[in-house]
Amino acid sequence: MSLLEFIGFFGAFMVGLIMGLTGSGGSVLSVPILAYLFNYNEKVATAYSLFIVGATALIGSFRAFRENKISKGLVLYFGVPAIVGVVLVRRLILHWLPDVLFSFGTFDFTRRMLVFGLFGILTAYTGYSMLAKSKINLAEFRSSNLHLKSWLPIAGVLLGMLVGLIGAGGGFLIVPMMMSIAKISFKKAVATSLVIVCLNSLVGFFLGDFVHLEINWSFLLTFVMLSFLGILIGGTLVRYIDGERLKKGFAYFLLFMSLCILIIEFKYH
Questions:
Q1: CA dihedral in degrees (124, 126, 131, 133; nearest 10)?
Q2: pLDDT band at residue 258 under the 50/70/90 scheme
Q3: pLDDT recorded at residue 247
Q4: C-alpha distances in angstroms, 103 versus 106, 118, 263?
Q5: Mean pLDDT across the stretch 87-113?
Q6: Helices 111-131 and 42-66: angle between axes, nearest 10 degrees
Q7: Radius of gyration (Cα) for the chain, nearest Å?
Q8: How many other CB atoms are found less than 10 A from the CB of residue 187?
């Protein structure tokens, strides 16, 4: 095992540890680890990330089912359309896209730049959202005459396509979206988000990438088991650590990482 691989497997543990400590954010580490430490291309890195995210969310989904916090209506009208979007991208669109999408003189804008560029931007957004107070006034949404719920299936498909493209769970987008459009509580939104993320990721992986790629199951399951170990330890440590300070530090780390991703992809590729 090389030094980079050792660091990568330690990173797998950190993915779970961060999720156990903060309740989110671990999925945004998996794609960079797979791409830059294990040298997987954008198709494989995002595919493996979907499986890792889905398997991890499965644990939280079981707990949410036991506590009866899930909005079954949102899973049906938002989650199922999102699955359609993920499968559409993973099975068809991503594999139809050429290596070079377009060129400006000597500059080639590649499929890899599209995928990792979007990933870097959304990683920056995740970090910012963890630092900033939400400016959404839910009372204004409740008093609005707009029938926003009718947009749920469309929003689900679009979100699923984005999730499928970048290989992340999308929970950081799903939770505020469901709170503002469907008018549900934060706890119920988080629980429902876990189920939707789990379904999106695992169905997208098995109906999309499983068909096209040769999966290295020994590597993938090792990565997932290390993440599970991290979740267990993180869930224990969170009782003794200042959660707000930890989340703030992790948010700054995400902003730094997003900058590194964008520089690497657009300056050195």
A1: 120
A2: very high
A3: 73
A4: 7, 18, 19
A5: 88
A6: 40
A7: 18
A8: 11
| ∠ CA 225-231-237, rounded to 5° | 140
**Cα–Cα distance, 154 to 157 (Å, whole number):** 5
Tell me what percent of the residues of the chain surpass a pLDDT of 70: 87
Instruction: From residue 221, give the alpha-carbon distance in Å to each of 36, 58, 147, 176.
Output: 19, 14, 44, 31
pTM comes to 0.82
Q: What is the per-residue pLDDT for 237?
A: 80
Looking up tokens 């870097």 gives 120
pLDDT surpassing 90 at residue 132: no
Where are the chain's structural domains? Answer: 3-267
Q: Judge contact between 16 and 234, C-beta under 8 A.
A: yes
**Location of structure tokens 């999308």:** 170
CA dihedral of residues 143, 145, 149, 152 (deg, nearest 10): -100
The single-letter DSSP state of residue 231 is H
